[in-house]
Amino acid sequence: MFTKSTWIRLPRNVVVGHGVVDRTAEVVDDLHLQGRPLVVTSPTPRSLVGDAIESQFTDSAVVVVEEATFESVERVIERAEATQPGFLLGVGGGKAIDIAKMAADHVGLGFVSVPTAASHDGIVSGRGSVPEGDTRHSVAADPPLAVVADTEVLAEAPWELTTAGCADIISNYTAVMDWRLANRLKDVPHSEYAAALSEMTAEILVDNADSVRPGLEESAWVVTKALVSSGVAMSIAGSSRPASGAEHLFSHQLDRIAPEPALHGHQVGVGSILTAYLHGGDRGFWTDIRDALRSIDAPTTAGELGIPPETLVEALTTCHEIRDRYTILGDGMSEEAAWETARKTGVIE
Ligand SMILES: NC(=O)c1ccc[n+]([C@@H]2O[C@H](COP(=O)([O-])OP(=O)(O)OC[C@H]3O[C@@H](n4cnc5c(N)ncnc54)[C@H](O)[C@@H]3O)[C@@H](O)[C@H]2O)c1
Ligand SMILES: O=P(O)(O)OC[C@@H](O)CO
Ligand SMILES: [Zn+2]
Protein backbone atom coordinates (compact mmCIF):
# COMPACT_ATOMS: atom_id res chain seq x y z
CA MET A 1 0.00 0.00 0.00
CA PHE A 2 1.26 3.49 -0.84
CA THR A 3 1.35 5.59 2.36
CA LYS A 4 3.73 8.45 1.57
CA SER A 5 2.62 12.08 1.66
CA THR A 6 4.39 15.40 1.37
CA TRP A 7 3.43 19.05 1.92
CA ILE A 8 5.69 21.50 0.12
CA ARG A 9 5.29 25.07 1.37
CA LEU A 10 6.51 27.80 -0.95
CA PRO A 11 6.07 31.58 -1.15
CA ARG A 12 3.22 32.75 -3.38
CA ASN A 13 4.99 35.85 -4.74
CA VAL A 14 8.69 36.33 -5.31
CA VAL A 15 9.28 39.90 -6.48
CA VAL A 16 12.87 40.69 -7.45
CA GLY A 17 14.12 43.83 -9.20
CA HIS A 18 14.99 47.48 -9.24
CA GLY A 19 13.03 49.61 -6.75
CA VAL A 20 10.61 46.86 -5.74
CA VAL A 21 10.87 47.80 -2.05
CA ASP A 22 8.49 50.67 -2.95
CA ARG A 23 5.95 48.07 -4.03
CA THR A 24 5.83 46.26 -0.67
CA ALA A 25 2.26 47.46 0.09
CA GLU A 26 1.17 46.33 -3.38
CA VAL A 27 2.64 42.88 -2.75
CA VAL A 28 0.85 42.75 0.62
CA ASP A 29 -2.45 43.74 -1.05
CA ASP A 30 -2.01 41.02 -3.62
CA LEU A 31 -1.85 38.50 -0.78
CA HIS A 32 -5.09 39.89 0.71
CA LEU A 33 -3.36 40.48 4.04
CA GLN A 34 -5.35 42.77 6.33
CA GLY A 35 -4.36 45.11 9.16
CA ARG A 36 -1.10 46.83 9.90
CA PRO A 37 2.39 45.36 9.65
CA LEU A 38 4.78 44.61 12.46
CA VAL A 39 8.19 45.38 10.94
CA VAL A 40 10.94 43.16 12.38
CA THR A 41 14.32 44.64 11.54
CA SER A 42 17.80 45.50 12.80
CA PRO A 43 19.41 48.98 13.09
CA THR A 44 21.23 49.32 9.71
CA PRO A 45 18.46 47.90 7.50
CA ARG A 46 15.96 50.09 9.34
CA SER A 47 18.02 53.18 8.59
CA LEU A 48 18.25 52.14 4.92
CA VAL A 49 14.70 51.14 4.00
CA GLY A 50 12.62 51.59 7.17
CA ASP A 51 11.03 54.88 6.05
CA ALA A 52 10.44 53.67 2.50
CA ILE A 53 8.53 50.67 3.82
CA GLU A 54 6.67 52.25 6.74
CA SER A 55 5.47 55.20 4.62
CA GLN A 56 3.49 52.75 2.44
CA PHE A 57 1.20 51.79 5.33
CA THR A 58 -1.15 54.07 7.25
CA ASP A 59 -0.06 52.56 10.55
CA SER A 60 2.80 50.19 11.42
CA ALA A 61 4.61 48.89 14.49
CA VAL A 62 8.36 48.23 14.57
CA VAL A 63 10.58 45.97 16.65
CA VAL A 64 14.36 46.17 16.34
CA VAL A 65 16.32 42.96 16.95
CA GLU A 66 20.08 42.39 16.97
CA GLU A 67 20.72 38.66 17.45
CA ALA A 68 19.09 35.43 16.24
CA THR A 69 18.13 34.03 19.66
CA PHE A 70 14.98 32.55 21.16
CA GLU A 71 14.85 35.65 23.42
CA SER A 72 14.61 37.84 20.29
CA VAL A 73 11.82 35.63 18.93
CA GLU A 74 10.06 35.96 22.30
CA ARG A 75 10.40 39.75 22.19
CA VAL A 76 8.82 39.90 18.74
CA ILE A 77 5.97 37.64 19.88
CA GLU A 78 5.32 39.95 22.85
CA ARG A 79 5.34 42.99 20.57
CA ALA A 80 2.91 41.23 18.21
CA GLU A 81 0.58 40.44 21.11
CA ALA A 82 0.75 44.07 22.25
CA THR A 83 0.25 45.67 18.82
CA GLN A 84 -2.08 43.10 17.16
CA PRO A 85 -0.64 43.37 13.60
CA GLY A 86 -2.24 41.69 10.61
CA PHE A 87 1.09 40.35 9.33
CA LEU A 88 4.86 40.61 9.88
CA LEU A 89 7.53 42.08 7.60
CA GLY A 90 11.08 40.74 8.14
CA VAL A 91 13.47 43.44 6.89
CA GLY A 92 17.24 42.94 6.94
CA GLY A 93 19.87 40.19 6.93
CA GLY A 94 19.45 36.51 7.76
CA LYS A 95 19.03 37.01 11.48
CA ALA A 96 16.17 39.54 11.29
CA ILE A 97 14.41 37.40 8.67
CA ASP A 98 14.80 34.20 10.72
CA ILE A 99 13.40 35.89 13.83
CA ALA A 100 10.43 37.36 11.95
CA LYS A 101 9.76 33.99 10.31
CA MET A 102 9.73 32.09 13.60
CA ALA A 103 7.69 34.70 15.48
CA ALA A 104 5.11 34.86 12.65
CA ASP A 105 4.82 31.09 12.73
CA HIS A 106 4.27 31.17 16.50
CA VAL A 107 1.54 33.83 16.45
CA GLY A 108 -0.10 32.33 13.36
CA LEU A 109 0.32 35.37 11.10
CA GLY A 110 1.58 35.68 7.54
CA PHE A 111 5.10 36.96 6.95
CA VAL A 112 6.78 38.78 4.09
CA SER A 113 10.56 38.63 3.65
CA VAL A 114 12.32 41.86 2.61
CA PRO A 115 16.05 41.07 2.42
CA THR A 116 18.46 44.01 2.44
CA ALA A 117 21.48 41.78 1.80
CA ALA A 118 21.96 38.87 -0.61
CA SER A 119 23.93 37.15 2.15
CA HIS A 120 22.10 33.87 2.90
CA ASP A 121 19.54 31.45 1.49
CA GLY A 122 17.05 31.83 4.35
CA ILE A 123 15.34 34.58 2.27
CA VAL A 124 12.76 32.09 1.06
CA SER A 125 13.21 28.96 3.16
CA GLY A 126 10.76 27.42 5.59
CA ARG A 127 13.45 27.13 8.25
CA GLY A 128 14.73 29.28 11.07
CA SER A 129 18.25 28.82 12.41
CA VAL A 130 18.86 29.56 16.09
CA PRO A 131 21.67 28.64 18.49
CA GLU A 132 20.84 27.45 21.98
CA GLY A 133 23.44 26.26 24.48
CA ASP A 134 25.62 23.58 22.86
CA THR A 135 23.31 23.02 19.95
CA ARG A 136 21.93 24.72 16.86
CA HIS A 137 18.27 24.33 15.96
CA SER A 138 16.96 24.28 12.43
CA VAL A 139 13.36 25.11 13.26
CA ALA A 140 10.53 24.39 10.84
CA ALA A 141 8.47 27.50 10.20
CA ASP A 142 6.06 28.65 7.51
CA PRO A 143 8.07 30.15 4.65
CA PRO A 144 7.35 33.76 3.74
CA LEU A 145 4.11 34.38 1.85
CA ALA A 146 6.12 36.71 -0.37
CA VAL A 147 9.66 37.92 -0.93
CA VAL A 148 10.43 41.51 -1.94
CA ALA A 149 14.09 41.63 -3.01
CA ASP A 150 15.12 45.06 -4.25
CA THR A 151 18.23 44.68 -6.40
CA GLU A 152 19.11 48.39 -5.98
CA VAL A 153 19.25 47.96 -2.17
CA LEU A 154 21.06 44.61 -2.42
CA ALA A 155 23.68 45.98 -4.86
CA GLU A 156 24.48 48.87 -2.51
CA ALA A 157 25.00 46.57 0.49
CA PRO A 158 28.64 45.91 1.49
CA TRP A 159 30.23 43.61 -1.09
CA GLU A 160 31.19 41.03 1.54
CA LEU A 161 27.50 40.40 2.29
CA THR A 162 26.99 39.44 -1.37
CA THR A 163 30.10 37.24 -1.46
CA ALA A 164 28.77 35.54 1.71
CA GLY A 165 25.52 34.76 -0.13
CA CYS A 166 27.52 33.28 -3.03
CA ALA A 167 29.55 31.13 -0.63
CA ASP A 168 26.35 29.92 1.10
CA ILE A 169 25.24 28.71 -2.35
CA ILE A 170 28.62 27.18 -3.30
CA SER A 171 28.47 25.17 -0.05
CA ASN A 172 25.42 23.36 -1.47
CA TYR A 173 27.85 21.03 -3.28
CA THR A 174 29.16 19.52 -0.05
CA ALA A 175 25.78 19.70 1.71
CA VAL A 176 24.33 17.47 -1.01
CA MET A 177 27.28 15.05 -0.80
CA ASP A 178 26.70 14.75 2.95
CA TRP A 179 22.99 14.22 2.42
CA ARG A 180 23.56 11.43 -0.12
CA LEU A 181 26.10 9.81 2.22
CA ALA A 182 23.65 9.98 5.14
CA ASN A 183 20.98 8.42 2.96
CA ARG A 184 23.26 5.54 1.95
CA LEU A 185 24.71 4.90 5.41
CA LYS A 186 21.87 5.84 7.74
CA ASP A 187 18.79 5.67 5.55
CA VAL A 188 18.15 9.39 6.09
CA PRO A 189 15.19 10.45 3.91
CA HIS A 190 16.45 12.01 0.71
CA SER A 191 14.85 13.85 -2.20
CA GLU A 192 16.71 13.64 -5.48
CA TYR A 193 14.68 16.61 -6.82
CA ALA A 194 15.76 18.82 -3.92
CA ALA A 195 19.36 17.60 -4.17
CA ALA A 196 19.52 18.16 -7.94
CA LEU A 197 17.99 21.65 -7.64
CA SER A 198 20.45 22.57 -4.92
CA GLU A 199 23.46 21.37 -6.94
CA MET A 200 22.22 22.99 -10.13
CA THR A 201 21.80 26.29 -8.28
CA ALA A 202 25.44 26.18 -7.18
CA GLU A 203 26.53 25.24 -10.70
CA ILE A 204 24.67 28.13 -12.35
CA LEU A 205 26.13 30.57 -9.84
CA VAL A 206 29.67 29.31 -10.40
CA ASP A 207 29.17 29.44 -14.19
CA ASN A 208 28.11 33.08 -13.84
CA ALA A 209 30.79 34.05 -11.32
CA ASP A 210 32.35 36.46 -13.84
CA SER A 211 29.23 38.62 -13.80
CA VAL A 212 29.16 38.85 -10.00
CA ARG A 213 31.03 42.08 -9.30
CA PRO A 214 30.76 44.82 -6.64
CA GLY A 215 28.12 47.49 -7.07
CA LEU A 216 26.48 45.83 -10.10
CA GLU A 217 22.74 45.44 -9.83
CA GLU A 218 23.02 42.54 -12.29
CA SER A 219 25.11 40.71 -9.64
CA ALA A 220 22.45 41.20 -6.99
CA TRP A 221 19.98 39.75 -9.49
CA VAL A 222 22.08 36.64 -10.22
CA VAL A 223 22.82 35.96 -6.55
CA THR A 224 19.25 36.57 -5.35
CA LYS A 225 17.85 34.17 -7.93
CA ALA A 226 20.28 31.53 -6.64
CA LEU A 227 19.33 32.19 -3.01
CA VAL A 228 15.64 31.83 -3.88
CA SER A 229 16.31 28.60 -5.75
CA SER A 230 18.29 27.16 -2.83
CA GLY A 231 15.50 28.10 -0.41
CA VAL A 232 13.00 26.31 -2.66
CA ALA A 233 15.22 23.20 -2.54
CA MET A 234 14.97 23.30 1.28
CA SER A 235 11.18 23.64 1.03
CA ILE A 236 10.96 20.65 -1.30
CA ALA A 237 13.13 18.62 1.08
CA GLY A 238 11.21 19.79 4.16
CA SER A 239 14.60 20.25 5.82
CA SER A 240 17.76 22.32 5.37
CA ARG A 241 19.62 19.16 4.25
CA PRO A 242 20.10 20.20 0.57
CA ALA A 243 21.89 23.36 1.72
CA SER A 244 23.40 22.41 5.06
CA GLY A 245 25.88 19.63 5.77
CA ALA A 246 29.10 19.38 7.75
CA GLU A 247 30.33 22.76 6.43
CA HIS A 248 27.33 24.33 8.20
CA LEU A 249 28.01 22.39 11.42
CA PHE A 250 31.54 23.80 11.28
CA SER A 251 30.22 27.36 10.83
CA HIS A 252 27.62 26.99 13.59
CA GLN A 253 30.38 25.82 15.94
CA LEU A 254 32.57 28.81 14.97
CA ASP A 255 29.64 31.07 15.84
CA ARG A 256 29.75 29.55 19.33
CA ILE A 257 33.49 29.45 20.01
CA ALA A 258 35.26 32.02 17.82
CA PRO A 259 36.30 35.27 19.50
CA GLU A 260 34.88 37.12 16.47
CA PRO A 261 32.90 34.92 14.11
CA ALA A 262 32.90 35.85 10.43
CA LEU A 263 29.81 36.04 8.21
CA HIS A 264 27.77 32.83 8.02
CA GLY A 265 28.30 32.42 4.27
CA HIS A 266 32.05 32.99 4.51
CA GLN A 267 32.42 30.38 7.25
CA VAL A 268 30.37 27.75 5.41
CA GLY A 269 32.45 28.42 2.27
CA VAL A 270 35.70 27.61 4.05
CA GLY A 271 33.96 24.66 5.73
CA SER A 272 33.03 23.43 2.28
CA ILE A 273 36.69 23.38 1.15
CA LEU A 274 37.53 21.26 4.21
CA THR A 275 34.65 18.81 3.87
CA ALA A 276 35.09 18.50 0.08
CA TYR A 277 38.64 17.36 0.86
CA LEU A 278 37.29 14.83 3.37
CA HIS A 279 34.89 13.48 0.76
CA GLY A 280 37.55 13.03 -1.89
CA GLY A 281 41.07 13.33 -0.48
CA ASP A 282 43.81 14.59 -2.78
CA ARG A 283 41.86 13.65 -5.89
CA GLY A 284 38.73 15.34 -4.58
CA PHE A 285 37.14 18.48 -5.93
CA TRP A 286 38.08 20.71 -3.01
CA THR A 287 40.27 22.79 -5.33
CA ASP A 288 37.20 23.53 -7.48
CA ILE A 289 35.33 24.78 -4.41
CA ARG A 290 38.31 26.90 -3.36
CA ASP A 291 38.69 28.37 -6.86
CA ALA A 292 34.97 29.12 -7.10
CA LEU A 293 35.12 30.95 -3.75
CA ARG A 294 38.22 32.88 -4.86
CA SER A 295 36.55 33.88 -8.10
CA ILE A 296 33.84 35.77 -6.16
CA ASP A 297 36.27 37.26 -3.57
CA ALA A 298 35.07 35.03 -0.70
CA PRO A 299 37.58 33.94 2.00
CA THR A 300 39.35 30.60 1.57
CA THR A 301 41.62 30.62 4.64
CA ALA A 302 41.39 30.91 8.42
CA GLY A 303 43.40 34.13 8.17
CA GLU A 304 40.93 35.67 5.72
CA LEU A 305 38.08 34.68 8.03
CA GLY A 306 39.92 36.26 10.97
CA ILE A 307 39.69 32.97 12.88
CA PRO A 308 42.72 31.72 14.87
CA PRO A 309 44.00 28.34 13.53
CA GLU A 310 43.47 26.62 16.90
CA THR A 311 39.84 27.76 16.99
CA LEU A 312 39.28 26.50 13.46
CA VAL A 313 40.67 23.06 14.38
CA GLU A 314 38.58 22.97 17.55
CA ALA A 315 35.45 23.74 15.52
CA LEU A 316 36.30 21.00 13.01
CA THR A 317 36.87 18.36 15.70
CA THR A 318 33.79 19.17 17.81
CA CYS A 319 31.09 20.36 15.41
CA HIS A 320 29.66 16.87 14.76
CA GLU A 321 28.24 17.05 18.30
CA ILE A 322 26.07 20.10 17.89
CA ARG A 323 23.28 18.53 15.89
CA ASP A 324 22.00 15.05 15.17
CA ARG A 325 22.84 15.26 11.47
CA TYR A 326 25.01 12.54 9.94
CA THR A 327 27.75 13.89 7.66
CA ILE A 328 31.23 13.02 6.39
CA LEU A 329 32.48 13.92 9.88
CA GLY A 330 30.80 10.77 11.22
CA ASP A 331 31.42 10.59 14.95
CA GLY A 332 34.24 13.11 14.80
CA MET A 333 37.75 13.88 13.53
CA SER A 334 40.96 13.55 15.50
CA GLU A 335 42.91 16.73 16.12
CA GLU A 336 45.83 15.47 14.01
CA ALA A 337 43.56 14.73 11.07
CA ALA A 338 41.93 18.14 11.40
CA TRP A 339 45.31 19.95 11.29
CA GLU A 340 46.37 17.83 8.32
CA THR A 341 43.13 18.58 6.44
CA ALA A 342 43.38 22.31 7.15
CA ARG A 343 47.05 22.45 6.08
CA LYS A 344 46.65 20.30 2.95
CA THR A 345 43.80 22.49 1.71
CA GLY A 346 45.73 25.67 2.52
CA VAL A 347 42.96 26.77 4.90
CA ILE A 348 45.68 27.05 7.52
CA GLU A 349 48.92 28.25 5.94
N1 LIG B 1 16.72 30.02 7.80
C1 LIG B 1 17.55 29.65 6.88
O1 LIG B 1 17.25 28.80 6.03
C2 LIG B 1 18.91 30.27 6.85
C3 LIG B 1 19.71 30.14 5.72
C4 LIG B 1 20.96 30.75 5.70
C5 LIG B 1 21.37 31.50 6.79
N2 LIG B 1 20.56 31.60 7.88
C6 LIG B 1 20.97 32.37 9.05
O2 LIG B 1 21.12 33.74 8.67
C7 LIG B 1 22.15 34.32 9.45
C8 LIG B 1 23.21 34.90 8.54
O3 LIG B 1 22.66 35.95 7.80
P1 LIG B 1 23.55 37.24 7.46
O4 LIG B 1 24.85 36.79 6.95
O5 LIG B 1 22.69 38.13 6.62
O6 LIG B 1 23.85 37.88 8.89
P2 LIG B 1 23.11 39.09 9.66
O7 LIG B 1 21.65 38.96 9.61
O8 LIG B 1 23.77 39.14 11.00
O9 LIG B 1 23.55 40.35 8.79
C9 LIG B 1 24.88 40.77 8.80
C10 LIG B 1 24.95 42.29 9.07
O10 LIG B 1 24.63 42.98 7.88
C11 LIG B 1 23.73 44.03 8.18
N3 LIG B 1 23.05 44.41 6.94
C12 LIG B 1 21.98 43.84 6.34
N4 LIG B 1 21.68 44.51 5.20
C13 LIG B 1 22.58 45.51 5.07
C14 LIG B 1 22.80 46.52 4.11
N5 LIG B 1 22.02 46.63 3.02
N6 LIG B 1 23.81 47.40 4.31
C15 LIG B 1 24.61 47.31 5.40
N7 LIG B 1 24.46 46.37 6.36
C16 LIG B 1 23.45 45.47 6.19
C17 LIG B 1 22.88 43.44 9.28
O11 LIG B 1 22.17 44.44 9.97
C18 LIG B 1 23.95 42.75 10.11
O12 LIG B 1 24.58 43.67 10.97
C19 LIG B 1 22.72 33.22 10.34
O13 LIG B 1 22.11 33.29 11.62
C20 LIG B 1 22.30 31.95 9.60
O14 LIG B 1 22.21 30.84 10.45
C21 LIG B 1 19.35 31.02 7.91
O1 LIG C 1 19.70 24.43 9.12
P1 LIG C 1 20.95 25.26 9.05
O2 LIG C 1 22.17 24.46 9.31
O3 LIG C 1 20.86 26.48 9.92
O4 LIG C 1 21.10 25.71 7.55
C1 LIG C 1 20.25 26.66 6.94
C2 LIG C 1 21.01 27.47 5.92
O5 LIG C 1 22.08 28.16 6.52
C3 LIG C 1 21.44 26.70 4.73
O6 LIG C 1 22.22 27.53 3.89
ZN1 LIG D 1 23.70 28.64 5.10
TrEMBL record:
SUPFAM superfamilies: Dehydroquinate synthase-like. It holds the Pfam family Fe-ADH_2. Zn(2+) binds at residues 168, 248, 264. Its EC number is 1.1.1.261. Pathway: Membrane lipid metabolism; glycerophospholipid metabolism. GO terms for molecular function: glycerol-1-phosphate dehydrogenase (NAD+) activity; glycerol-1-phosphate dehydrogenase (NADP+) activity; metal ion binding. HAMAP family: G1P_dehydrogenase_A (MF_00497_A). This is Glycerol-1-phosphate dehydrogenase [NAD(P)+]. It comes from Haloarchaeobius iranensis.
